[in-house]
Amino acid sequence: MYFQRLRDLREDRDLNQTQIAKLLFTSQTVYSRYERGERTIPVEHLLILADFYGVSTDYILGRTNNKKVMK
Predict the structure, then answer these.
(1) What are the CB-based long-range contacts (under 8 Å, 24+) for 57-61?
(2) Comparing C-alpha atoms, which of 13, 53, 16 is closest to residue 2?
(3) pLDDT band at 7 (very low <50, low <70, confident <90, very high)
(4) What is the pTM (predicted TM-score) of this model?
(5) Are 7 and 46 in contact (CB under 8 A)?
(6) What residues contact 34, with CB distance under 8 A and at least 6 apart?
(7) pLDDT of 70 higher than 80
(8) Distance (Å, rounded) from C-alpha 50 to C-alpha 59?
(9) Percentages helix, strand, coil for the chain, rounded to the nearest 5?
(10) What are phi and psi of 56, to 5 degrees?
(11) Percent of the chain residues past pLDDT 70, beyond the cut
(12) Predicted local distance difference test score (pLDDT) of residue 1
């Protein structure tokens, strides 16, 4: 599921949930629910995170293992 990818991407950059929540203008609690799969991530947040991490939305969603963004 995509929530594991969210956590892996965040941890690979040595960031905490609060830092990512600030990027998304949301609370740490809400972001934590995304990572645990308890809440569906809004498209707006998905796009922000894909741009921030430099990966495709399909990668975050687990539709591909290719991190590269198609241009």
Answers:
(1) 59/5, 60/2, 60/5, 60/6, 60/9, 61/2, 61/5
(2) 53
(3) very high
(4) 0.91
(5) no
(6) 3, 6, 40, 41, 45
(7) no
(8) 9
(9) 60, 0, 40
(10) -80, 155
(11) 96
(12) 66
